[in-house]
Specification:
Blueprint lengths: L1 H20 L8 E9 L2 E9 L4 E8 L7 H15 L11 H18 L9 E9 L2 E9 L4 E8 L7 H15 L11 H22 L1
Antiparallel strand pairs: 1-2, 2-3, 4-5, 5-6
């Protein structure tokens, strides 16, 4: 009977250990830096994440008010680490600092979140019609993001169409989406840029199938 009980307990321990050890990775492990605005100006945080959890949060540079903002740092950081979530109470009287800590952690998590591959990485060429004729774009995609957009050949009007290129391309890269505003006065060129990016994404998705 004792042998059977021991064997049962051992099997249960092994099962639980395997389940714990096989926890699905949520983050790419590393130290992530996030700069956010607090009550006293910018706060620089270094946040360590392992594959499944928030390991540490450190405010490496800040100018928060002694006795108020720094109390929020001392209170909110341990609360986040314990809860493994930013859904914790703010420190009374230091809401801005408290929210800055939460924003920094959320930013680090966004940086570290393991994303499923969406595209076949590569440089994709797309030819679309702009205001001045055909525009040839080369668009680089990684597995999960739009890396770069370059108009390698175009005849858009100087001071109008080329301003759209200078404005809309960075906006798409920042948003990681073509749902951005067109450049005023150069809607056709703006829409051509968006169409080229969407075409490249379509090519990269087809290649992945």
């Amino acid at each position: 009977m004792k042998r059977q009980l021991t064997a049962t307990l051992l099997a249960l321990a092994l099962t639980l250990g395997a389940a714990y050890g096989c926890a699905e990775a949520k983050y790419t492990p590393g130290t992530y830096e996030s700069v956010v605005r607090g009550m006293g100006g910018k706060i620089t945080f270094q946040i360590v994440l392992d594959e499944t959890s928030i390991v540490s949060i450190e405010a490496v540079k800040h100018h928060e008010t002694a006795g108020i903002g720094d109390r929020a740092l001392e209170s909110v950081i341990p609360a986040i680490l314990e809860a493994q979530s930013t859904e914790v109470d703010a420190w009374s009287g230091a809401t801005i600092t408290s929210n800055a800590i939460k924003a920094a952690v959320e930013d680090a998590i966004a940086q570290a979140t393991v994303q499923e591959a969406k595209y076949v990485p590569g440089v994709y060429e797309s030819v679309v019609r702009g205001m001045g004729g055909k525009i040839t774009f080369q668009i680089e995609l990684s597995e999960t993001a739009i890396v770069s957009i370059e108009a390698v050949k175009h005849h858009e009007t100087a001071g109008i169409g080329d301003r759209a290129l200078e404005s809309v391309i960075p906006a798409i890269l920042e948003a990681q989406s073509t749902e951005v505003d067109a450049w005023s006065g150069a809607t056709i060129t703006s829409n051509a840029i968006k169409a080229a990016v969407e075409d490249a994404i379509g090519q990269a998705k087809l290649a992945a199938e």
